[in-house]
């Protein structure tokens, strides 16, 4: 039944969505556009920058913009998380996939900002390279004033906004689809065209109440599970390191720095690193990543938490980095790992 709703225009009131999109664009200072699973726009652009608007009107440059949009969206789908990248003019863009039960139904494209701290974003991929660089530079020079007017943001600000938009967009879509499914179920249960009000079946509750309770229970179960695993405590051969291990296992949702662990043990970072490697047989970064991937697999196995939320539960600031780390250890993505489990 849920597959009947795998189209954005059937799930969302696009007029209301566009108003929300406009508000988000104003608050975040990003240009935002929503597209369907084929890449076709289902809303107009919100807060499109003058430079980008003019570039898209240029028949020689428009194909490059379209190629950026297409590749950005595909990469986001592949990662099953928001994807931050650079366009052919080194402007930051974000592709946020909208998925329901692992089905890709569309994306929110945001961005059109420049990095205030290019060094911090040096790992961002320029998703499309330009063959005719001289023509490209000449076009940019012609639009230099509007290019200079493009707002700037720090890399950290962009990542935080991308995560917020991803959680918000998918939450709203999930709310809408559950409402549609529940409405259809109530209609069939009633045996008539009128839908039964949820308040009739579950007095004192609304759909929002139920979804909020569901999310809170899922998170609580995940937290309880991770806090009660058999490997919840590690007893060190070297007792000097015990405070660091106690902290790691008691703060699974935090990002843990080596320098902080060294301070807890009253050691210098270099001496702590040597003792840690002797204790575990691997360096601090490798050990911590391996441990977090073990916890990630547990969460993927026993909960329905979205991959982005699993990432957040384990202290990763950016879902893309979490997915990259998971793939390094498990040779697959978190989404595919979960899917393979369900097929067994």
Structure description:
Residues 242-340 form the HTH araC/xylS-type domain. By secondary structure, this protein is α+β, with helices and mostly antiparallel strands. The chain folds into two domains: 2-174, 2-Layer Sandwich (Beta-Lactamase); 227-343, Homeodomain-like (Arc Repressor Mutant, subunit A), CATH 1.10.10. Helices cover 57% and strands 10% of the residues. The chain has helices spanning 8-11, 14-28, 50-57, 62-79, 133-142, 144-148, 155-190, 198-201, 207-227, 242-250, 258-264, 269-280, 284-302, 307-313, 319-330, 334-343; strands at 31-36, 83-86, 92-100, 103-115, 152-153. Strands 1, 2, 3, 4 and 5 form a five-stranded mixed sheet that branches. The protein is globular. Residues 1-5 and 185-205 have low confidence and may be disordered.
Largest sheet: 5 strands, mixed
Shape: globular
What is the alpha-carbon Rg in Å? 23 Å
How many discrete domains?
A: 2
Classify the helix fraction into a percent range: 55-70%
The class by helix and strand makeup works out as alpha+beta
The CATH class of the largest domain is Alpha Beta
Beta strand count? 5
CATH architecture of the largest domain: 2-Layer Sandwich
Which spans have pLDDT < 50 for at least 5 consecutive residues?
1-5, 185-205
Q: Might you state the CATH topology name of the largest domain?
A: Beta-Lactamase
Q: Kindly estimate the percentage of residues that lie in beta strands according to DSSP.
A: 5-15%
Query: DSSP helix count?
Result: 16
GO molecular function, one term: sequence-specific DNA binding
Protein name: AraC family transcriptional regulator
Pfam family, one: HTH_18
Keywords: DNA-binding, Transcription, Transcription regulation
């Amino acid at each position: 039944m849920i597959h009947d709703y795998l189209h954005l225009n059937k799930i969302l009131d696009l007029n209301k969505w566009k108003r929300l999109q406009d508000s988000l664009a104003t608050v975040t200072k990003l240009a935002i556009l929503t597209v369907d699973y084929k890449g076709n726009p289902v809303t107009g652009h919100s807060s499109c920058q003058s430079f980008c608007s003019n570039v898209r009107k240029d028949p020689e440059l428009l194909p490059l913009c379209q190629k950026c949009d297409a590749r950005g969206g595909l990469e986001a789908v592949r990662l099953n998380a928001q994807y931050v990248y650079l366009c052919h003019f080194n402007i930051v863009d974000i592709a946020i996939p909208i998925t329901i039960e692992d089905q890709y139904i569309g994306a929110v494209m945001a961005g059109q900002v420049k990095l205030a701290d290019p060094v911090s974003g040096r790992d961002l991929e320029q998703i499309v390279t330009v063959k005719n660089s001289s023509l490209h530079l000449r076009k940019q020079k012609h639009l230099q004033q509007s290019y200079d007017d493009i707002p700037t943001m720090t890399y950290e600000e962009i990542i935080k906004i991308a995560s917020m938009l991803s959680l918000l967009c998918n939450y709203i879509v999930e709310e809408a689809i559950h409402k549609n499914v529940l409405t259809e179920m109530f209609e069939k249960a009633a045996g008539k065209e009128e839908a039964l009000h949820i308040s009739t079946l579950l007095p004192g509750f609304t759909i929002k109440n139920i979804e909020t309770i569901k999310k809170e229970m899922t998170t609580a179960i995940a937290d309880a599970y991770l806090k009660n695993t058999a490997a919840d405590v590690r007893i060190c051969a070297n007792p000097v390191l015990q405070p660091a291990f106690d902290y790691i296992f008691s703060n699974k949702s935090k990002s843990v720095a080596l320098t902080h662990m060294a301070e807890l043990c009253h050691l210098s970072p270099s001496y702590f690193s040597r003792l840690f490697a002797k204790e575990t047989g691997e360096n601090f970064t490798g050990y911590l990543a391996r441990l977090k991937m073990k916890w990630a697999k547990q969460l993927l196995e026993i909960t329905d938490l979205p991959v982005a939320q699993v990432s957040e539960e384990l202290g990763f600031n950016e879902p893309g980095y979490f997915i990259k780390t998971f793939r390094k250890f498990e040779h697959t993505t978190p989404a595919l790992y979960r899917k393979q489990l369900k097929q067994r």
